[in-house]
Give the backbone structure.
Amino acid sequence: MKSKRNFLVFFCFFLIGVHAQTETDIQLAQYYYANGEFSKALIYYEPLYNSSPNKVYFSRYLDCLINTGDKKGAEKLFKKQVSANASDVILKIQFYFFYQGIAEEDKAKKVKNEILKLDFYDSKEVQDIIDNLLAIDEFDWAKDIVDKAKKTIKFYPFELWLAQICTAQGDKLKALEFYLQVLSKNSSMKEQIQLEIAANFDFSKDSEELKQVKNRFLLAGQKDPSNTVYAEMLIWFFLQSKNFSAAYQQCAAYEKRIQGDGQSLIDFATTCLENNEFDLAVKALNEVINQNLTLKIEAQQWRLSAYFKQVTSLRKFTQDEINAIIADYEQFLSQNDILRYGSDRIVLEYAEILGFYANQASKAKEYLEKKVVENGITDMQRAKIRLKLADVCVIMDSIWDASLMYMQINDAFKFEPIGNEAKFKNARIFYFDGEFEYAQSQLDVLKQATSRFISNDAIQLSLLILENYGLDSNYDAMSAYAKSELLLLQRRYQEAFQWMDSISIKFPQSVLNDDLLFLKGKAFMQQGAYDQAMEFFQRLVSTYPTELLADDALFQMAKLLEEHYKDIEEAKAVFLKIIDKYPGSVYTEETRLRLRRLRGDILPD
């Protein structure tokens, strides 16, 4: 019994020793391989492969043999691996490429013929084979594989493979022909085809090639007028090319042709809103409303939202214009009890226009107070209305009433984005009141918020406090700065500028000088005075390029160039500057998204 126990102990130690040795061999093999010492790595990879002939060891062992000039050894290894994996076509293609590399043309041809004798039943396998063949520029062979697959794989759009081959050969227009053939058989593949075409063609510049693309869509539609997918593709083409007027003409004609419910016009309008094409958005929505299409009420809501975005984005409007917009909201809201149908967007937009842009905060407050106690609405809707009501209270300088509401919303929705938003806005109330340390403690929690926008806002305000407050001598300057921010939020611009100017006079050596430039830029932007706003942002970037707000100023400049000056190329240049010079900026993610949109890339929903 004792001897048996001793044997088991010995056997366990033996296994541990073998395992330790194997681990050491693997580490040494990886070390020598990574350093290009293939002859030394070979010593370890040969036994590792023999004991476990997986793909990793095979690939490394093969590399070592080839790099040490052992062609025979490499060929022998390939034959062994192929024999053990007879169904692995990709491995056989690699074997073919190996023979090509050592000028063994007859042997390479033999491997190729063996592959061509195979039948294929799995479309994924065919795709992998084509990918590997195109990687070694075997275009004709890839076509032969497609021809073989067509005989055995039914109901698969093999034209996609042919298009892929044409693209690899550089013949993008020929690839387009194959894509159109796919659409003629299966219009449900429209979005996939759009992604493929967008990857192949540059829509940011008007070119002869793009004209050819448009003409191919038109010709396909003429040949098969009953298939509406070509009209849809043409609309998509004009949107990608930023030719919104042409897209509208196509979209309106398409809607009439299919006697639709208005959805395509609404989709077009929302795309226009994303690109600040307000007039065309309203025109498309009016088409749905005037024709009394099924989605008329939805179109009316989107038209109001178009007005809202126009007011809040352009910030330039006459009193008559703002009064007309308010009248449209009131007419719609009087006829549609939209809160009962789960739509709170229009209610919140209407209140924001009243309180923030029409100088009718009291009316906005009264309206929201009625809405917040309505029966039949969800808790989330009620919370959104209370949040907007608190915002209006801030405008009316009832900041502690607002603070109470923010706290109540945060308590009720601690783990929801709206709760974090309320918590941030409440922290900002204490910041406005000069309670910087308490505000900072709340912001520290919000830096980890799941909402990127709340997290970024919390980080920005936290950094402002950390950078500019700490010494007793800074308190008065910071208090005056916070007061200026509150006045700007309340649209009391003349008072805000007086407070900002007082900081420069009383504290000429203040570390807030760059912050003041940024705040003045924001103030002018808020009033629609974009030239003055650009001037202050440019001064900040040129005078304080290493300060915390330099990337903020660049981001605002890029937005102005894109949205208001319509200088797309210059906007892209400024966005790229943010990525290049300020890689740690909180705006990096949004900057990349905006760049992709400006380039015409298809963005995920």
